[in-house]
Amino acid sequence: MAEIERLTITLPSEMVAVVKGAVDTGDYASASEVVRAALRDWKLKRALQFEELAALKADIETGLADVVAGRLKDFDTARIVERGRKVLAARSTSA
């Protein structure tokens, strides 16, 4: 089991009410459990954000490499708008 260490934190009263409410309703046995669950969720969300950022950076690098290699198309706003309309239409018919 992981080593347990005591940590004192300060929260706004609204957050304290949420933590206490979660314990009072029986969702969690203690305030510590609420905070641990919140931190696990935060770690997961943060990891996903880092993955998304890495993917975005990779896409940017790919785009820049395409520019350097001359693999470009003229910017055609009408084509992009039409493509967006088709995507939206397909979503609304499949929903």
Notes on the protein architecture:
This protein is an all-alpha fold and 95 residues long. The chain has one domain (13-94). It is built from three helices and no strands. The longest helix has 39 residues, at 31-69. The chain is elongated and about 60 Å long. The model has no long low-confidence stretch (mean pLDDT 94).
Choose one word for the global shape.
Answer: elongated
Largest beta-sheet characterization: none
| Low-pLDDT residue intervals, each spanning 5 or more residues | none
- Give the helix proportion (percent range): over 70%
Structural class category: mainly alpha
Could you tell me the radius of gyration in angstroms?
Answer: 24 Å
What is the count of structural domains?
A: 1
Number of strands: 0
Number of H/I helices: 3
Question: What string gives the helices and strands in order?
Answer: HHH
Strand content: under 5%
Mean pLDDT: 94
Q: Oligomeric status of the shown chains?
A: single chain
Family: Belongs to the ParD antitoxin family.
Pfam family, one: ParD_antitoxin
InterPro entries: ParD, ParD_sf, Ribbon_hlx_hlx
Organism: Lichenifustis flavocetrariae
Q: What's the arrangement of secondary structure elements?
A:
Layout: H1 13-24, H2 31-69, H3 77-94
Supply database-style keywords.
mainly alpha, 95 residues, elongated, single chain
